[in-house]
Amino acid sequence: MDTLVAEIRQKAEDLLSRKVVSMVLGFTRGNLPMVTRPCIVRSPEDADLLWWDDFCVMNLAAFIPPRHEGKIGVFAKRCDLRNLVILNSEKKINLHDDFYIMGIPCHGMLDSEKVRQAVPGNKRIESVTSGKPFIEIMQHGGSQSLERHDMLRESCLTCSQTSPDIVDEWITGPADPEPLPHDSEQSPVIEPDRDAESFDALFSECIRCYACREACPSCYCETCFVDKAGYLWQGPDIPGEKNSLDFHFFRAFHMLGRCTDCGACESACPVHIPVRQLVLHLKRGNAAFQKYEPGLNPSLQPPDACFCPAIHNHRK
Amino acid sequence: MTEPFLPVLAKIIAIRSETADKLIKTFTLSIQDKADADRFDFLPGQFIELFLPGKGEFPVGIASAPAEKGIIEITVKKTGLVTTYLHTRTINDNVGIRGPFGRPFPWQGMSGKNVVLIGGGFAFTTLRAALQYILNRENRPLFKDIHVVYGATNPELLLYRAELEQWAGHGQDIQLHLTVDRTNGMAWHHETGLVPEIVRQRVPTGSADTVALVCGPPIMVKFTIPVLDALGYRHDQVFLSLENKMKCGVGLCGRCNIGPVYICKDGPVFSLEKLNQLPDEY
Amino acid sequence: MDTFILEKTAFQSFSGEVARDYSVYLPTFQKGILGFNPYNGDATALEEGLTRHPLKQFLLPNGDIIVHYHRHPQGSEENRFSPASDDRNIVVLGVRPCDARSVGLNAMALLSDSSNPYQDSGFQQRRRHLIVIGLGCLSPCADGFCGSVGGSPEDETGMDLIFFDLGDSYLVKVLTEKGARLTPEKRFQPAEAADIKRLSDLVATGRKTFAAAADPKISYAEGDINTLFNLPLWEELAERCLNCGICTHLCPTCYCFDLLDHGNEKQGYRFRVLDSCMYQLFTQHASGYNPRKSKASRIRQRFMHKLRYYPENFNQQVACVGCGRCVRYCPVNIDIREVASQIRLHSGGNHD
Hints:
The complex is a heterotrimer of chains A (about 325), B (about 280) and C (about 350).
Chain A: H1 2-17, E1 23-29, E2 36-41, E3 50-51, E4 72-76, H2 78-89, H3 95-98, E5 99-103, H4 112-118, E6 125-130, E7 134-139, E8 142-147, H5 154-157, E9 169-170, H6 195-203, H7 211-215, H8 225-229, H9 245-255, H10 264-268, H11 276-284, H12 287-291
Parallel strand pairs in A: 1-4, 4-5, 5-9
Antiparallel strand pairs in A: 1-2, 1-3, 6-7, 7-8
Helix pairs in contact in A: 9-11
Chain B: E1 8-17, E2 24-31, H1 34-39, E3 47-52, E4 56-61, E5 71-77, H2 81-87, E6 94-101, H3 107-110, E7 114-120, H4 125-135, E8 146-152, H5 161-169, E9 175-180, E10 191-192, H6 195-202, E11 210-215, H7 218-230, E12 238-241, E13 257-258, E14 261-262, E15 269-271, H8 272-277
Parallel strand pairs in B: 7-8, 7-11, 8-9, 9-10, 11-12
Antiparallel strand pairs in B: 1-2, 1-6, 2-5, 3-4, 3-6, 12-15, 13-14
Chain C: E1 3-7, H1 11-21, E2 23-30, E3 33-38, E4 64-70, E5 80-83, E6 90-95, H2 97-110, H3 121-129, E7 130-135, E8 161-165, E9 169-174, H4 177-180, E10 189-190, H5 193-212, H6 225-229, H7 233-238, H8 246-250, E11 257-263, E12 267-274, H9 295-313, H10 325-329, H11 336-347
Parallel strand pairs in C: 2-6, 6-7, 7-8
Antiparallel strand pairs in C: 1-9, 1-10, 2-3, 4-5, 4-12, 8-9, 11-12
């Protein structure tokens, strides 16, 4: 990881001092183990703030500043890249004019909640060092090793490891990046014949903080449908009437064909709800969407985006 | 004040349209239960939370001076969900009232002084209550000279116009200056010009015993303050009435604050001196 | 103050007995999340760790009905507004000192004091009926920083009883009359000198590790209010803050609420839900104007309230109990300790 961080910093310093970009969007260290902060760096002297590790779980496409002059450099994981493509095709950003994209080959990000649950007791975690195949956890009074693979985020376990062709350059990092173990045969969490129970069970803990919505790059509406209607039509939170599903169902429909399965929603959720499952469920139920990979091909549109048969060459 | 969240039942006993476009109406409300009515003690500057069951609540300044126990007037502009619903209500409809809330105009400090009332547009409601209160036969001797400057965009948008002209005309011992930005070709016998300009021309210079009450849209207030400064009004002699989105109306729900003060319980009337100490978040 | 010993082997029968007369909640795991869940007879001891959700759910529950109405639009006989009431007797076990302290902080804002003649009677009623059985922390928890805000792991503020885990047993201190009612003689033996010494040894050991955690202080944000208001800090935080509201949902001392209506013109009720200053609609006027339109202004409001406005109104106490939930669950690692330090650095206030 150190060589990767050094390369990122060097690249940022170079781009900023040559004024190729006016700002760089990346991550900086958090002040606690297992958390990082999206950050914007504007001067070459600040390039040393940049950081990269196995906990860069946020999708940087959600942190593009609303106003900027000059180009933005972005250090992007593959899923981030795909969301940038989606924003571009929905005309929210202009990739060609405003961005300098640097791809980071990603080996999967880790789930801090999984780590905490694997570590017994309630002791403060002092540091987490991620290596392969083990992660070292230092706590007051001891240390522990965990299998890295077991700590990967759910979304990383099913990552297709493909990326759109929009990268200006790749930051190489370690010489021989291992491919991420791919688990495309993950069984569905929502069983098609018992979906009502599954929905309730999955979303019963939801407190409607809307972190999933805020962390998602595809949720960019200034006024969300939820804000417009207030709490009321979702069902008031009276005991026996709690209803979080309306919000998640509607949001899932808005996400279909536009979700890159980056998992930022799940990483943001404070009660560890597998938020992605609804969109995945919808996708599985529809052959056209099942075949369509959002954000992978900048010239393609989702199956429901328009009525032009000529564009939908992926439909049969 | 017993229970701030429990409304008292009131009936609409009169409705009057204030403007030609009927977007602003004055409702007269009568608190039904005698004990509730007796307890409803207020001073101009205060507000109530009007409850329309099934629709919601909104805060509204009391637009009448205390007179008959339990009878108040409110002037409401059709803006959102609840106010639109209110505009469809008829005589004898029942509503709920919570209040009176907030700090009124500083009546004790105003005693024995000249009072200048400056209002703009739709914000004249509590100033009208203040004026009614001042002109009340018992109260009038408590105050010295009264100047009123009230302006609207055009003559059709002036509230309480007939009433104001009547007061001015019948030797009620006030100097009334009505003004509009534009006459729009209507017959108009008063001033033309923006409120701050009319204040500059007509309002007397500040002195130890003058107080100014200013209620209006933020832009009007912003340009009126420098005029009052130039006229020599100290900031502890100028009082504004503010508004923000409110829910509880009693300083508990945490919503309407500017800095450490809540507009509903520490205001809505604030001296300019106090406002200057608060952050610019309004 | 009476001090007792409750053997852990007797814990289950103790909680069963309490559950006969009260609604009992205690920390248990549900779907991997520790929360104050209804007692179901299974718990044999109090869990380690801090519940994900704070204690405020018992004092300011979502969906709290505050007034019922029955209305005949034009008639008068059947019209009435009636207050709702909640006089359930609730006992919550295993409340950490940080959560227990939050009750008092919320009470200062919501109950009568000289600056506010109105009080939140729903909150007051629930507080009267709530019995808080605390669990002292003998070692630093995973995420908290109670020392930063003047709290401590053995703080008894806001509790009716406090339990300390001695290993095989709990040392129990009775703090109020409400608490005394729950310590029947047959389960509770008077504590002996050896027990009390054992506790103080554990506390002393724990203190060393708490000190080692080096809590930076979170103190009242001094300085000119406009200087604080215009710090570049707020825009910096806005670059990553999601305005998701997780901090407000999980914070024991965030009590801002919304009042909503349910029903039709004839009958229904008005109820309260917890709201969040992080959301755009919180301060939006009906006209559409919003004094806090920008993300930065909303972030500023939250921290200024916690560190400056609240303490200014209530005895210089910051509205934070150091439970650490906001820091632990913030998806972008915004840390109130850092914000407090940044404010101190730039405001020209006291540097400690």
